[in-house]
Specification:
mainly alpha, about 0% strand, about 190 residues, 11 helices, about 75% helix
């Protein structure tokens, strides 16, 4: 069966989401308004409400992020750090607006923080459970990995600290990968 041609409503939703990502990333959840998002998308505010129901519904759609973490069964202890750090750098570079919005809002909005926690719990925790030597330590180890990944994301992509931005991708991987690997594979201190 041939693919159906894109509907106008699909294009409208895509346009609204793109405008919302940028607005939430730049203004945060509290200051972003439906009117401003609609203006950025060049549509009537009623269209935003029609498709998403509310600012919260739109925010949920913006933060519906799949980290596309590699299957834990395919990860190896000796390369897990390089694999995850490289994966997250690519993910962040390809989805900067969505992830920047998620990170900015999560530090100022309880619903955003809960969403970010859920994403990392559901998507990163399985990796820790598979790789770490003691599955009972998986939540703590996943939290440590998240601290490294989110810390670099904050420094490099949100705050744009010159030293973090200036690092070549290979340098970021070389610096962070051993720490991420240690968090996941080293014996408990």
């Amino acid at each position: 069966m041939p693919d159906r041609p894109p509907r106008r409503s699909d294009a409208t939703r895509t346009t609204i989401l793109a405008a919302a990502r940028e607005r939430f990333a730049s203004d945060g959840y509290e200051r972003a308004t439906i009117r401003a998002i609609a203006r950025d998308a060049r549509i009537d505010p009623s269209m935003v409400m029609r498709y998403y129901g509310s600012k919260e519904g739109l925010f949920d759609a913006v933060l519906d992020v799949d980290l596309h973490i590699p299957d834990p069964r395919e990860l190896r202890q000796h390369t897990v750090g390089e694999t995850l750090v490289g994966h997250f750098l690519t993910l962040w570079e390809e989805n900067n607006d969505a992830l920047t919005a998620m990170l900015r809002v999560s530090v100022t909005n309880p619903a955003g923080a809960e969403r970010l926690q859920r994403i990392f719990r559901d998507q990163l925790l399985p990796v820790a459970r598979h790789i770490c030597p003691d599955p009972e330590q998986a939540p703590a180890r996943a939290g440590l990995v998240a601290s490294q990944i989110l810390g670099m994301a904050l420094a490099r992509y949100v705050l744009k600290l010159p030293a973090a931005v200036a690092l070549a991708r290979e340098e970021v991987v070389a610096w962070l990968a051993p720490t991420v690997r240690r968090y996941l594979t080293a014996p408990h201190p």
